[in-house]
Amino acid sequence: MNKFVEEIILRAPEQWMWLHKRFKSLPDYELTNSRYQ
After folding, report:
1. Shortest CA distance to 16 belongs to which of 2, 4, 6, 1?
2. pLDDT at residue 27, rounded to an integer
3. Per-residue confidence (pLDDT) for residue 5, from 0 to 100
4. How far apart are CA 37 and CA 27, in angstroms?
5. Region for residue 25 given its phi and psi (left: phi exceeds 0; alpha: psi -120 to 50; beta: otherwise)
6. What would the DSSP string read from start to end of 1-37?
7. Domain hosting residue 15, numbered range
8. Is 37 within a domain?
9. pLDDT digits (tens, 9 = 90+) for 1-37
């Protein structure tokens, strides 16, 4: 499955959504004010 997804992405990488907020690290002050404590 991963190989299939990789092949599709390689056809048009500019169309793939690369940014996902869940993978970004947050500064310490944002963690203390997070609604997901």
Report:
1. 6
2. 61
3. 86
4. 14
5. beta
6. -HHHHHHHHHH-GGGS----GGGS---HHHHHT-S--
7. 2-32
8. no
9. 889 988 988 898 877 776 555 556 656 655 555 555 5
